């Protein structure tokens, strides 16, 4: 299964590198949202809870853009049909899409966080980076697992671009809670993260639960 | 489809439910003592909390029915899951409304973000509100029931996680006069609460059976009509 997943992932990444459909849009969207927040909040620099809220909501919404497009090529160009015919475990498709989404989010964060630091962040990102990394990674895994499942759930519906955000946002509320609670002290001046371990633990639990749920149910979505 | 008779013993169940509802209301107003601190407004607790517990159990039951559907491929399990979610959403509106009334009378605001259970409930409610838009935007009936079941399983796993997250996010728990489970209630209040919980569970079961019977009958009717039309032509 891993071999199949890697093959699909390589195909997806190659398509992304050649067409540049998702990631540039996600980055551009994030930067635009930072500008919007600058005017919406009428603030030149943010810190603490405001900075945390802006960064996480922006990353989440930018992630939605990628999640919406995740399976479109498979459906429109017959990828689903071919994969059903091929003697492969269909869960590999979920794994590949989740891995692709994870990588998109990593690239997005590598590009968008410095921009956020430059445009809006008051205290500076350098000091917070070692603690911020595990939060970002665990949150990305959760987002990737749930995103790859929900995107597949919505792909056959008539109102796909409506269904994805409607389903995904409530499902990701726990991720936002944990990530924001863990990030907030890092971005506030002179605060030490007190219960970082608790929130990392929760994010890890969330990731494990939704990876297991996705592996258990994904087959049924393509099983025609 | 199956020809399971969902309507069996529905009448008896309805009468038992009515008796329990009457008894519960009588106990609430005439037997349970008025709360020393909260006064009369505490009575809404006997509706709000059982309703919340029953709807959450309804969501979990729907997840279990959905697992059965996915494993067996028998679409009658999907109908059971669908009706349980549908009913829980309707009663969920009641939970949020009674919760808001309680918050308004107790703390002076219609909505209190410090109350972790209510906030978690809102998130769960918002998630399940997407069940029907998802379900009815899929045309093929077989695929519709399969996708709906996948949603029900995923959302079922989400419910406990969400409660943990919101609970952890509270720096301090709101000072509670009553614990949600009724664990530290005085005896006569606890008895009233348990009768109310049973009454609410029975109400849910009756409505669930009624709706299942309804769906089953209309489906059979449709099938008979089709056969009749085929014979006539």
Notes on the structure:
The complex is a heterodimer of chains A (224) and B (233). Chain A is an all-alpha fold and 224 residues long. Chain A is built from nine helices and no strands. Chain A has helices at residues 2-19, 23-41, 48-69, 72-76, 79-85, 91-119, 129-154, 160-187, 196-222. In chain A, helix 3 runs parallel beside helix 7 and helix 3 runs antiparallel to helix 8 (160-187). The two termini of chain A are 20 Å apart. The model of chain A has no long low-confidence stretch (mean pLDDT 90). By secondary structure, chain B is mainly α. Helices cover 76% and strands 0% of the residues of chain B. Chain B has seven helices and no strands. The radius of gyration of chain B is 20 Å and the shape is globular. Residues 177-182 of chain B have low confidence and may be disordered. Classes of the chains: A mainly alpha (224), B mainly alpha (233). Chain A binds chain B through residues 149, 153-154, 156-159, 162-163, 166-167, 170-171, 173-174, 177-178, 181, 198-199, 202, 205-206, 209-210, 213-214, 216-217, 220-221, 223-224, and chain B through 70, 123-124, 126-127, 130, 133-134, 137-139, 143, 146-147, 149-151, 153-155, 157-158, 161-162, 164-166, 168-169.
Mean pLDDT of chain B: 86
Total count of strands of chain A: 0
How far apart are the termini of chain B?
25 Å
Number of helices of chain B: 7
Biggest sheet architecture of chain A? none
Low-confidence stretches of chain B: 177-182
- Unreliable residue runs of chain A: none
Helical content of chain A (DSSP H or I, runs of 4+):
over 70%
By DSSP, the count of extended strands of chain B is 0
Biggest chain pair interface: A-B, 33 and 29 residues
Short structural summary:
By secondary structure, chain A is mostly helical. Chain A has helices at 2-19, 23-41, 48-69, 72-76, 79-85, 91-119, 129-154, 160-187, 196-222.
């Amino acid at each position: 299964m891993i071999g199949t997943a890697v093959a699909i992932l390589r195909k997806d990444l190659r398509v992304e590198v050649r067409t540049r459909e998702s990631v540039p849009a996600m980055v551009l969207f994030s930067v635009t949202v930072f500008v919007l927040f600058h005017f919406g909040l009428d603030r030149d620099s943010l810190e603490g809870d405001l900075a945390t809220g802006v960064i996480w909501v922006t990353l989440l919404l930018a992630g939605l853009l990628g999640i919406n497009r995740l399976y479109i090529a498979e459906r429109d160009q017959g990828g689903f049909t071919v994969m059903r015919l091929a003697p492969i475990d269909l869960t590999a498709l979920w794994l590949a899409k989740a891995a692709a989404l994870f990588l998109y989010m990593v690239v997005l964060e590598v590009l968008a966080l410095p921009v956020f630091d430059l445009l809006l962040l008051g205290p500076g990102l350098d000091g917070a980076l070692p603690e911020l990394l595990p939060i970002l990674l665990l949150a990305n895994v959760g987002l990737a697992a749930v995103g790859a499942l929900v995107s597949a759930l919505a792909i056959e519906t008539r109102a796909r671009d409506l269904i994805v955000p409607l389903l995904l946002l409530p499902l990701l509320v726990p991720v936002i809670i944990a990530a924001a609670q863990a990030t907030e002290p890092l971005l506030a001046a002179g605060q030490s993260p007190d219960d970082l371990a608790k929130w990392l633990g929760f994010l890890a639990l969330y990731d494990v639960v939704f990876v297991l749920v996705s592996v258990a149910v994904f087959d049924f979505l393509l099983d025609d | 489809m199956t020809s399971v008779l969902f309507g069996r013993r529905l009448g008896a169940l309805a009468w038992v439910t009515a008796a329990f509802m009457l008894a519960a209301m009588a106990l609430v107003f005439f037997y349970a003592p008025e709360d020393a601190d909260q006064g009369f407004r505490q009575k809404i607790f006997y509706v709000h909390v059982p309703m919340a517990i029953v709807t959450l159990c309804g969501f979990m039951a729907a997840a279990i029915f959905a697992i059965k559907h996915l494993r067996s491929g028998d679409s009658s399990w999907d109908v059971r899951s669908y009706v349980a979610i549908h009913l829980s959403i309707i009663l969920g509106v009641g939970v949020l409304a009674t919760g808001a009334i309680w918050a308004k009378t107790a703390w002076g605001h219609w909505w209190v973000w410090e109350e972790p259970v209510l906030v978690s409930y809102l998130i769960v409610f918002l998630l399940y509100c997407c069940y029907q838009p998802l379900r009815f935007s899929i045309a093929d009936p077989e695929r519709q029931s399969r996708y709906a079941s996948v949603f029900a399983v995923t959302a079922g796993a989400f419910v406990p996680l969400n409660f943990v997250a919101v609970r952890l996010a509270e720096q301090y728990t709101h000072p509670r006069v009553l614990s949600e489970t009724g664990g530290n209630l005085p005896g006569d209040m606890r008895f009233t609460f348990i009768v109310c919980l049973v009454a609410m569970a029975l109400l849910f079961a009756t409505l669930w059976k009624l709706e299942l019977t309804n769906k089953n009958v209309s489906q059979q009717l449709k099938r008979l009509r089709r056969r009749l039309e085929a014979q006539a032509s």
